[in-house]
Amino acid sequence: MAPPVNPRLRAVLFDWGDTLFHAPHAAEVIVSFARASGAEISEARAGELWDELWVAGKTPEEIAKGRDLSLEAHRRVWMDLFSRLDAVAPGLSGALYERVMDPRSWVPFADTRVTLEAVHRRGMKVGVVSNVPADLRPVFAKHGLDGLVDSYTHSFEVGAEKPDPAIFLAAAKSLGVRPSETLMVGDHAVDRGAERAGMQVFILPTEFEGDVRGLATIVDHLQ
Questions:
Q1: How far does Cα 74 stand from its chain's mean position?
Q2: Distance CA 207, CA 78 (A)
Q3: Local structure of 24: helix, strand or coil
Q4: Are 167 and 160 in contact (CB under 8 A)?
Q5: Containing H/E element for 21?
Q6: What is the DSSP string of 125-186?
Q7: pLDDT, tens digit, for every residue of 106-141?
């Protein structure tokens, strides 16, 4: 059951990756590169390998490495993790990083636009706050979503990563709202750092259907 939402909310902050956008083709990259290198791998196995890497990348140990404070750190940390794929096909780790980890290759979930529009119709401000080493503005503009976001707060610009309250406080300040007037929506435990900044937090379920993330649940609980 979703937690009660403060009726005095004036803003909603959204995480970016796995909340509003997702990487659509990681398994395809693994399959195509492996086969081009003479290694045969099924799509199912490629999907399993990607899922294993992605889950590993979300552990506290990996997150604590400061990968989202710069492009250099991001590449180094993720490449260390992806290197295990080079046993499948030499060079696969680099191909996966270049083709999948670039934010410009990610796409919105099917319910992202309607959710952002619904929040705006309620007269609330929308912010994106993300652990990310690059500017997300061009990514939203590419999909015509830039007009639905009032501010972007990036870890590499703030110099702090979630769950550090500093990044959430910076996001609230950018929108001109108090933390107590703000709801943080995300998919990972790091987003709960917003509670230490005085915000409410809603963590999306890990299970969902297709590319519909389940964001309508947020709108249903906004007053």
A1: 14
A2: 24
A3: coil
A4: yes
A5: strand 21-22
A6: EEEEEE--SS--HHHHHHTT-GGG-SEEEEHHHHT--TTSHHHHHHHHHHHT--GGGEEEEE
A7: 999 999 999 999 999 999 999 999 999 999 999 999
CB 128 within 8 A of CB 172: no
- For residue 45, the tally of other CB atoms under 10 A from its CB is 15
Question: Could you state, in order of their start, the residue ranges of all structural domains in the chain?
Answer: 11-22+106-220, 26-100
pTM above 0.90, yes or no: yes
Pairing verdict, β 21-22 and 107-108: antiparallel
As a dihedral over the C-alpha atoms of residue 96, residue 99, residue 104, residue 109, rounded to 10 degrees, the angle is: -60
Burial profile 84-103: b = 16 or more Cβ within 10 angstroms, e = fewer: ebeebbeebbbbbbebbbeb
Give the largest CA-CA distance in the chain.
59
Instruction: Please tell me the CATH code under which domain 11-22+106-220 is placed.
Output: 3.40.50.1000
- Count CB atoms within 10 A of the CB of residue 221: 13
DSSP 188: S
Tokens 């979300």 -> residue: 58
Residue numbers in the chain where pLDDT is lower than 70: 1-7, 223
